[in-house]
Amino acid sequence: MVEVKCNLCNSSFNSLKYVKDGFRVVKCACGMVFVNPRLREIKYDEEYFKRKGSIYEDYLDERELKKKNFKKIINEIKKLKIGRLLDVGCGTGELLEVSKEKGYSVKGVEISEFASGYCSGKFDVINESFDEVEFNEKFDVVTMMDYIEHSKDPFNDLRKVKNILNENGILVISTGDINSWFSKLMGRNWNFLNPEEHLYYFSEKSLRKMLEKSGFEIVKIKKDFRYVSFRNFLRYFKINLKMKGFNFLVWLPSMMVVFARKV
Ligand SMILES: [Zn+2]
Fold first, then answer.
1. Separation of CA 112 and ligand 1 centre (Å)
2. What gap in Å lies between CA 262 and CA 116, rounded to an integer?
3. CA 98 to ligand 1 centroid distance, Å
4. Largest CB tally within 10 Å, which of 72, 157, 236, 261?
5. Residue 183 CA, ligand 1 centroid: distance in Å
6. How far away, in angstroms, is 200 Cα from ligand 1 center?
7. What is the pTM of this model?
8. How far is 143 from 77, CA to CA, in rounded Å?
9. Ligand 1 centroid distance, CA of 209 (Å)
10. Cα of 207 from ligand 1 centre, angstroms
11. Mean pLDDT of all residues in the chain?
12. b/e sequence 177-188, b meaning 16+ C-beta within 10 Å
């Protein structure tokens, strides 16, 4: 286990918010919520993507759903910027597939050998941790979908994104919102609160602060409407259904999508 300082304001002082799965989730006076201490390394192997009872059990089955969701996001991004796109934490490549169809030239970074292996035949995917990749090119758009909560150093990642973006480049982040009514209602049972692998819990305010500190301005913050399967939807309420059901569009009240521009 490793003890960490606040990633937003560097303070070592924080107060206990939750204990879950044997981990302490703490809150800094600046508003940042994070796991402390945390595991030194997290293994994103095949097991991770297929883990029983987790949202990832249907990971590969849900590719079509994900593509539908990413299409909505890419349509939004297209209004702001076109060109070269980098997807950080590209998983099995659904966003790369959709954005390529929409006319972007695409590249992905993925720490999991299993996931990157799945799509590396089709796309240019670097199998490394984002902070270790050395880029000798620039991008117009960087996307981080459900990535930043896994990052060991979000602030460092955002500064790195700034450096690899062209002038007025766009960064899109989707992550949980710990200040949402759903998160408050569920407390330590919030499905997104998964301290073994989700290390950082942002609110609109703390994400805005970190983005501004790393050289971005907010373009817009959107509520996250996603297509989900009925089965995964029930899992949010700790119900495990054996059958595979239908899919539907639902507003996920504890997720947010943030569009930011490099300044
Ligand atoms: Zn802080």
1. 29
2. 28
3. 36
4. 157
5. 20
6. 12
7. 0.90
8. 10
9. 11
10. 12
11. 90
12. bbbbebbeebee
From CA 220, how far away is CA 207, in angstroms rounded?
Answer: 12
Close Cβ partners of 171 (under 8 Å, ≥ 6 residues apart): 141, 142, 143, 144, 158, 161, 165, 211, 216, 259, 260, 261, 262
Please give the distance, rounded to the nearest whole angstrom, from the Cα atom of residue 257 to the centre of ligand 1. 22
Structure confidence at residue 46 as a pLDDT band (50, 70, 90): confident
Segment (H or E) for 35: strand 33-35
* Alpha-carbon separation of residue 180 from 103, 105, 163, 176, 255 (angstroms): 34, 35, 31, 9, 8
Domains, the chain: 48-262 (3.40.50.150)
Whether the per-residue pLDDT at 206 is higher than 70: the answer is yes
Q: Are 248 and 227 in contact (CB under 8 A)?
A: yes
DSSP code at position 58: G
Cα-to-centroid distance, 74 and ligand 1 (Å): 32
Ligand 1 geometric centre to CA of 173 (Å) = 20
Distance 187 CA to ligand 1 centre (A): 21
Q: Taking the chain, what is the end-to-end CA distance rounded to the nearest angstrom? A: 37
DSSP three-state, residue 63: helix
**pLDDT confidence tier of residue 56, bands split at 50, 70 and 90:** low
Residues ≥6 apart with Cβ < 8 Å to 242? none
Residue 106: what residue type?
V
User: Between the CA of residue 140 and those of 119, 161, 188, what are the distances in Å?
Assistant: 22, 11, 38
Distance of CA 19 from the midpoint of ligand 1 (Å): 19
**Which residues sit opposite 225 in a β-bridge?**
251
